[in-house]
Amino acid sequence: MRADGPVTSVTIVDLTHDGVGVADLDGRRIFVPDALPGERVEVVLRKRRRKIQEADLKRVLEPSPERVAPECEYFGRCGGCALQHLAHPAQVSFKQGVVAETLKRIGRVEPGEWLPAVVSAPWHYRRRARLGVKYVAGKDRVLVGFRERAGPYITDMRGCPVLMPPVDGLLGELADLIGRSSLRE
Q1: Alpha-carbon span 163 to 144, nearest angstrom
Q2: CB atoms within 10 A of CB 40
Q3: How far apart are CA 171 and CA 158, in angstroms?
Q4: Is this prediction's pTM over 0.70?
Q5: What residue ranges define each of the domains in the chain, with the CATH number in brackets?
Q6: How far is the CA of 159 from the CAs of 37, 110, 156, in angstroms?
Q7: The pLDDT of residue 127
Q8: What's the sign of the alpha-carbon dihedral 77, 78, 83, 88?
Q9: Cβ-Cβ contacts under 8 Å for 11 (sequence gap 6 or more)
């Protein structure tokens, strides 16, 4: 997080389709990653364009009852998950809302009735993932993981709680294997 912009507090009123908190401040929309609807948060303002401004979450002043501790130690840096801080039932509800809104806005379709969501376990549910692989000279090793949230870098991770156990436990071994091979070049 950058600490060089002005600091203010805002109330989060919504989430974008990709889980970024939205607030209003002086006629501008403020976008705050890791903030949830209903929360009062302190933010550091940064990039501003016309009526839109990005901000970094400095601290949560009044948390949402739906806020939970993220399971993953890489949450916030890794771009693989955006909603680990939101309780699983609330995540499902949010995602259903995104589907409904998208169907209405793009497809001009409003189903009269929705089937219940097909819900898996909140952790260790992904059998497949698109991971990045990169040799990082400064660390003198290969990294295998998801791309970082705010950049082109690979998250330095040894496991992932959304990947199924066989895959989750192999990230570090895969990085070591590639690092020992000629593939790293």
Answers
A1: 13
A2: 15
A3: 6
A4: yes
A5: 7-62 (2.40.50.140), 68-185 (2.40.50)
A6: 29, 40, 10
A7: 87
A8: negative
A9: 23, 38, 39, 40, 41
